[in-house]
Amino acid sequence: MSNAAAALSYLLRRSLVNRLRRQVHQLRQPRNLLALAAGLAYLWLVFLGPQRASVSASFNSWIELLGLAMIVFALVRWWLFDADHAALAFTPAEVQFLFPAPVSRHGLIHLKLVRMQFVLLLNTLLWTVIVRGRFSGLAPWLRAGALYTLFATLSLHRLGVSLLRASVREHGTAGLRRRLVPLAAFGIAGSLLFVGLAASWPSLQAAWPEGPVVFFAAVRAAVERPLPAAVLLPIRWLLRPITATDAAVWGRAMVPALGLMLAHYLWVLRSNDAFEEASIEASVRRANRLAQRRRSGGRALEGMPRLGRFRVRLRPSGWAPLAIVWKNIMSEARGVGFPWVQTLLLLAAVMIIVRLVARGTTGPEAVGALAATWAALLLIAGPQWIRNDLRRDLQQVDVLRTWPLAGPALVGAEVASSALVLTAFQAGLLLLAAAGFAESLAEQYQLGELIGGVAALALVLPPLNYLALAIQNAGALLFPEWVRFDRRAAGVEALGQGVLGMAAAFLLLALAAIGPALLGGGAAWLLWERVAPAVVLPLGGVAAAGGLVLEAFVVTDWLGGVFERFDPSTRLME
Amino acid sequence: MIQVEGLSKLYGDFPAVQQLGFSVGAGEVLGLVGPNGAGKTTTLRCLAGIIPPTRGGIRIAGHDLLTQPVAAKARLAFVPDEPHLFEYLTVEEHLRFVARLYGVGDAETRIPPLLEELELGPKRQALGSELSRGMRQKLAIGCGLLHQPDVLLLDEPLTGLDPVGIRRMKATIAGRAAAGTAVVLSSHLLPLVEELCTRVLIIQSGRAVALGTMDQIVAGRPGLEGRGLEDIFLALTGHREA
C-alpha cells in the first residue's frame, strides 16, 4: 500500500472510530441515552411496526414507471443544469490537507468513493426497511443488494458527470474533446428518447382529458415503445432486481445491473483530469451553506444575506429590549426574506383567481379551508419552524451575556420576536380563511358575533403563541446540548431528541392551556344567557388571554433567571 | 474601577482560574499575560459577566457583578478575540443597536466620528457578513467604545488588523485610558503589553505568578533586572529559554 493510500485509510478508519467513540461517550449521560431510546422506538414504530400488505403486480409496474421518471429527471438535472455541486465537494479539512499533499487524483476520487459508502449503506438500509412487504418472495438481503447497486451506480454517474463538467470548464475545447464519447452518448440517448416520446404525443394528448388512470397508462405505453424502451433499458436494468419476485429472477437481473455499476466505476476512474478548482469551489459553496444553516438555527438559506429594501430605522434611545426585537425582525427579513409573507401573497392571489374564475363553486372555500388548517397546524408546528429567538442567538451567548439587560427582559424580547412573526402569519391565514368562507359565514352568523369571534381570537392568539415559543426557548436554555448549533443533526440520538422535544413541548403547551381555557370558557358560559354573543366572546377571550398572559409572565421571569444563571462555558461545551 | 477578590472558576473538577485578586483603577491599563490555557480568557469572561465565577467577587465601577449585573454591565465593554457580529445588520445598524441597548441618547453625534476613527466610514452600509476579519474586529471595538465605558476588557484586540489599524488601535486604547477608562488588555504580543500597560498580571495554570509594574515585578528578583517583559515572562513561567 502506498503512503498516500495508507494515510487515507488511516484518516477514514480513525474518523469512523472517533466518531463512534464520541457517540458512545455521549450515551453516558442519561438524557442522551433517553434520546437514543426514543429515537429507536420511533424508528421501530415507523419502519418495523405492523407489517403492511404486499401490493399488486400492476402497482409494482407503476412504481417502476415512477422510479424511471425520477431517475431520468435526475440525469437531466445533472447533465444539463449542473444541479448537484456537492458531488465534487470535499470538507475544508480535506481540501487543506489532501490537495497540497502528494496524493494522486485517483487517490482523491477513491477517498470520495469510500466516503460515499456511508450514505449509500444508510440509504440502502432505510429503503430495504421501507419496501419490506411491498414485494413478496425475496430475501431482504437480496433486496438490499439490488438497492445498493442502484444507489451506487447513480452516485457514480453523478460523480462522473461532475468530473466531466469540471474538465470541460477547466480545459475548454480540449476537455470537450477528451470527453467526447460520454457527451455523444448522452446527447444521442437524449435525442432518441425525445424523438421516441414525441411520436406518442398525440396519444398522450388524447388520454389527458380521460383522467389520471388513462393518462398514466398512455405514458406507460409511450415509454414501452421500441425506441424509448431501448434508451431507458440501462435504467430498467437497475430497477429490475428491486422488483424481482424470487432469487432466480433476482440473480438474472443483477448481472446487467452489476455490469453497469462496474462500467460507471471505470468511467469515474478514467476521469482523472484536473478537477481541484471545481472541487474547491463546490467545497466552499457547501461550507458556506452549512455555516449559514448553523447561523440560521437550522433553516436552509439560499445565497448570502442581502441588505434588501426592507429597512426600519432604530432610534438610539428608548426601551432597550425593543432593540432585540428589531434585530431579530431584520435578521428574518434579510436572511430568509419573510417566506411567510410570500406564502400569504401567493395564497391571496390563488384566492382572487379562484373567486374570479370559479364563481359560485366551492373553490374559494377549499382555499379558505386550506388556510384555516394551516393556521391551526401552526399552533403546533409554528414554534418549531419560526426560530428567530434564543435558539438562534445562543450561538452568540457571549455577546448576549454582556448586554446590560435583566434576564427576563432579554428572554421576553427574544421570545416576542418569534411570537410576533408567528401571530402575523396566522392572522393572515385566518383572514384568507374568512375571505374563503365569507358567504357562508355571513349566512350563519350576525356581524356582531363575527366581530366578537375575531376579537376573542385576536386576544388569545398572541399570548398562546408566546407561551408555545417560551416553552421551545426554555428547552434551548435547559438543554442547550440538544439545540444543534455547530453540527448537523444526525443519527438516531438526534432523532430521539427531536421526538422527545416535540412531545414535551406539546404536552406542556396543552397543560398550560387548560387553566386559561377553563377561565375563558367559564366566563363565556356564565354570561352566555345574559349578554349578547358579540360581547360574550371578547369577554371570554379577555379571561383566557388574562390567564395566558399571567402564565407567560411567570414563565418569562423564571426563564430570565435561568438565563442569568446560565453558564455557557459548561453547558455549551458538553 | 475593577476589584477582583478570590476569583476562582472550575470547569467540573478542572480549576481554570484559582484565587485571583487584583484591582484596576481609572486610567490604568492592566496587561493580562500567560501561556496558552493559563486562564486569561476565562478571567476576562468572568469580568465581563459572561460566565459566573465559582467563587470570589467582582466589582465593576462600584457595582457587584453578581448581585447588580445590569448596572455593572452598563459600565463595561468586552471585545472578544473572535468578533461575533450579527450578519444581517449593517455596520451603522450595529452601532445603533448597541446605542439602544446601552441607552446612548446622543448616539447620532457619536457614531460618525467613531466610524471615522475606526476607518469604517465607507463600510457603514455593509452587512456584518460582508466584512473582512480586520473590519469585523474594528466594528466589535467600535461597539465596545460607543457607550464610553468606564471599564474596557480587550482580548487580543489587534488580531486581524493591518499595520495602520494596529497603530490607530494602540492610540485609541491609550486615549481611552488617558480619559479615565480602566482597561484590561489580554495579549500574547508582549511588546504591545509592555508599550501600553501600566501594570502587568502574569498568570499560569489559573494562578497569579506576578502582578505589578515592571519595576515592582523585577524587584526582589535580581536575575531579571534590566530585562524586557518577554524575558520576565519566560522566567516566571518556568521556561528554560529564559
Description:
The complex is a heterodimer of chains A (574) and B (242). Chain A has 574 residues and is mostly helical. Chain A is built from 24 helices and no strands. The longest helix of chain B has 16 residues, at 163-178. Chain B starts with a strand and ends in a 6-residue tail after the last helix. In chain B, helix 6 links the parallel strand 7 (151-155) and strand 8 (182-186). Chain B has helices at residues 40-47, 69-74, 91-102, 107-117, 133-145, 163-178, 190-196, 214-218, 229-236; strands spanning 2-11, 14-24, 29-33, 55-60, 63-64, 76-79, 151-155, 182-186, 199-204, 207-212. Chain B has a domain at 2-81 and 151-236: P-loop containing nucleotide triphosphate hydrolases (Rossmann fold, 3-Layer(aba) Sandwich). The chains are: A mainly alpha (574), B alpha/beta (242). The A-B interface holds A 295, 304-305, 307, 313-318, 320, 322-323, 326-327, 330-331, 333-335, 396-399, 401-406, 564-565, 567-570, 573 and B 9, 11-12, 42, 45, 48-52, 69-71, 73-74, 76-78, 80, 84, 86-90, 93, 96-97, 99-105, 107-108, 125, 127, 129-130.
Write down the Rg of chain B.
18 Å
Helix content of chain A: over 70%
The CATH fourth-level homologous superfamily of the domain at 2-81 and 151-236 in chain B: P-loop containing nucleotide triphosphate hydrolases
Fraction of residues in H or I helices of chain B? 25-40%
Mean pLDDT reading of chain A: 80
Tell me the major beta sheet of chain B: 6 strands, mixed
Q: Distance N terminus to C terminus of chain B? A: 34 Å
CATH class of the domain at 2-81 and 151-236 in chain B: Alpha Beta
Counted beta strands of chain B: 10
User: Helix/strand-derived class of chain A?
Assistant: mainly alpha
Oligomer: heterodimer
* Beta-strand percent range of chain B: 15-25%
